Amino acid sequence: MNELSARDLIGASQDAELAFAPDLTIIACSEAYGRFHGVSCDALVGRPIRQAFLDDGARERLIASLEGVCRSRRPHRITSLAPLPAGGGKTALDATMVNMPVLGADGGVKWILHSLIVEGGPDRSAMALALEAAEARLRSILQTVPDAMIIIDDRGRIESLSTTAERLFGYSMAEIAGRNVSQLMPSPDREQHDAYLKRYLATGERRIIGIGRIVVGQRKDGTTFPMHLTVGELRSAERHHFTGFIRDLTDQQLTETRLKDLQSEVTHMSRYTALGEMASTLAHEINQPLTAISNYLRGSQRLLDRIDGEQTPLLRDALGKAADQTLRAGHIIRRLREFVSRGDSDRRIENLARLIEDASTLALVGAREAGITASFRLDPNADLVLADRIQIQQVLVNLIRNAMESMTEAAKERRLEIATAAGADDVVEVSVADTGSGLAPEVASHLFQPFVTTKRKGMGLGLSICRTIIEAHGGKIWVEDRPGGGTVFRFTLRAAEIEETGDGG
Ligand SMILES: Nc1ncnc2c1ncn2[C@@H]1O[C@H](COP(=O)(O)OP(=O)(O)OP(=O)(O)O)[C@@H](O)[C@H]1O
Ligand SMILES: [Mg+2]
């Protein structure tokens, strides 16, 4: 949220004013204040109150008042000698000083506005003057804040809204001012809002003030949208206002939904491919013993031919059936393998940059927290490839997750670089480089085989899935040590070009 500074608030003020931080450091000073005391504002801004003013009773009275304002969050007025800035040229004068808290969106005191009114000014009360000035400034701020902001009174009536809020809700200030703010929300909040407000004013129990929540807003045309709402409270002497800061979440939610879809697509596919990978490994591993069993059975049958006895034909028959069943088992496994590895590959012309972007959004979840920075070097000449989008994303997700895992243990430098390059013969090369631990020597030579892992919770399937997919795409995948430490995985894909359609028009 774009915060207003105390300087913005005081900058153009015609009155003698200072702004204090809650620790009573001076953070802004109006020209008029400097002129009044014959001191330059630069000499005051940035200084703690005890350094800025001469050590006397007037200073201590001001400090006590400001401290009281911080505690009570209510304005306070004192009539006393005005405290004199150190190095100023004037003598002390009787003055009225109004100290007004400016509350932040969290409900705490953000700064204190100190106005100095010298006796003999216009006969309106100093408080009324100060309030009027503050309100005028607030109005001008509302026209310029980039945020959607709404101010309501203690009965929920809209007092003003920023230009951005007008645009967001589709109402103009003139048509909505004075109406109940519940008009900007759908049911059931619409009917409940007055009750929420009453309850807060009666109990002081905060449900949204200073906390912020995601709620639903309703535009003039009746459409609704998700928004993040933070409510702050402004209290002046006898009036109570609430400020609402609104962030439109429409875009953000769209991204999140898209990310979820993508995630479930890719994880679904990766389970499917993992199954295929396991089936083909199993088929391979089980076929050998099955062949051996079948050979032994045939051998035994032949041995039986040389043995006489009543039961031998029966035995021979049983052995023959056992051998047939062994073969059948082999067939079943082979069929399973074909079934899964055939997977419905759906190859189309894809935009490689887009594909990489999607896959990295998925895979890089948690990267920032792990201190990993990711960069992309995408060759504009390697733009289109012939690929099954989901499968190639799966390859990228596997490689990126491996790269991140290799960096999160020890690596000091945690950099991930994804690059593409157009090569010769319509081949595009994609690389995923990390600054991680490098390859463990015991696995380096057979990384791409299934069930090879150095991780406690690893399945050792990631890279073998990558190889299956890339080879099915007619590409190659391999690994290199990264100069300077870490690992680079590279794979190739077929480049594609959008052909001119010949059927003209
Ligand atoms: N970027 C890398 N840096 C260092 N070693 C790596 C890297 N990528 C893979 N390896 C090594 O190769 C092994 C096999 O990786 P693979 O992705 O096939 O399985 P895994 O990550 O252990 O388990 P999973 O099936 O969950 O992916 C890893 O256990 C690791 O030792
Ligand atoms: Mg892995």
Give your account of this protein's structure.
The protein has 505 residues and is of the alpha+beta class. The protein has 4 domains: 6-122, PAS domain (Beta-Lactamase, 2-Layer Sandwich); 148-248, Beta-Lactamase; 253-342, Helix Hairpins (Orthogonal Bundle); 348-494, 2-Layer Sandwich (Heat Shock Protein 90), CATH 3.30.565.10. Helix content is 43%, strand content 23%. The protein is built from 15 helices and 17 strands. The chain has helices at residues 6-11, 31-37, 41-44, 49-52, 57-72, 126-144, 163-169, 173-176, 189-203, 250-305, 312-342, 352-363, 389-408, 441-444, 462-472; strands at residues 16-20, 26-29, 76-81, 94-103, 109-118, 148-153, 158-161, 213-218, 224-235, 240-248, 348-351, 373-377, 384-387, 415-422, 427-434, 477-481, 487-494. The strands form 4 sheets. The protein has a 5-stranded antiparallel sheet with strand order 2-1-5-4-3, with helices on both faces. A hairpin with a 4-residue loop joins strand 14 (415-422) and strand 15 (427-434). Helix 12 crosses helix 13 (389-408). The protein is elongated, with a radius of gyration of 37 Å. The model is unreliable at 500-505 (pLDDT under 50). The site of magnesium ion (MG) has 4 residues, from helix 13.
Write the layout of secondary structure elements.
Layout lengths: L5 H6 L4 E5 L5 E4 L1 H7 L3 H4 L4 H4 L4 H16 L3 E6 L12 E10 L5 E10 L7 H19 L3 E6 L4 E4 L1 H7 L3 H4 L12 H15 L9 E6 L5 E12 L4 E9 L1 H56 L6 H31 L5 E4 H12 L9 E5 L6 E4 L1 H20 L6 E8 L4 E8 L6 H4 L17 H11 L4 E5 L5 E8 L11
Helix pairs in contact: 10-11, 10-13, 10-15, 12-13, 13-15
